[in-house]
Design a protein that fits this description.
By secondary structure, the protein is mainly β. The protein folds into 2 domains: 46 residues, no CATH class; 81 residues, OB fold (Dihydrolipoamide Acetyltransferase, E2P). The chain contains 1 helix and 8 strands; from the N terminus they run αββββββββ. The two termini are 21 Å apart.
Amino acid sequence: MMLPYLPATLPFPTPSLDLVEFWRHCAGRRLKFQACAECSVARHPPTPLCPHCHSKLITWIEAPSIGRIFSYTIVYNASHETVGPYLPYNVVLVEFEGMDNLRLVSNVIDAAPHELAIGREVVLAWEEGPEGQLLPRFKLHQGD
Ligand code: ZN
């Protein structure tokens, strides 16, 4: 059995001002995270100030296409009626080499439940949302 995940057809929220640039990069199939231009610490979600050194200088750095599952859960109870038909679904926290303390909330697609594990490598896979937005999701890396 393949484990369902949140469908790309779910309503897409209007991005906050800080997230507009993140989604603009996604539209170009680039997973980029905001980073501090002074101390280089990457962060997500984006914020106007660096939480590490308080600089307002921002740059954007591309994530490696392979990440690792930092943690995950399988959701069995619908928190909203729109996700009811998709239970159970997985939610993963993905971390990337060289980006300490940055984790992206996403889903792993095309995976069986027993295949999800903390530390497993995952590969970036773009999916199209209801209005053509590109959503960063992941597939299990077949190399490990
Ligand atoms: Zn900084």
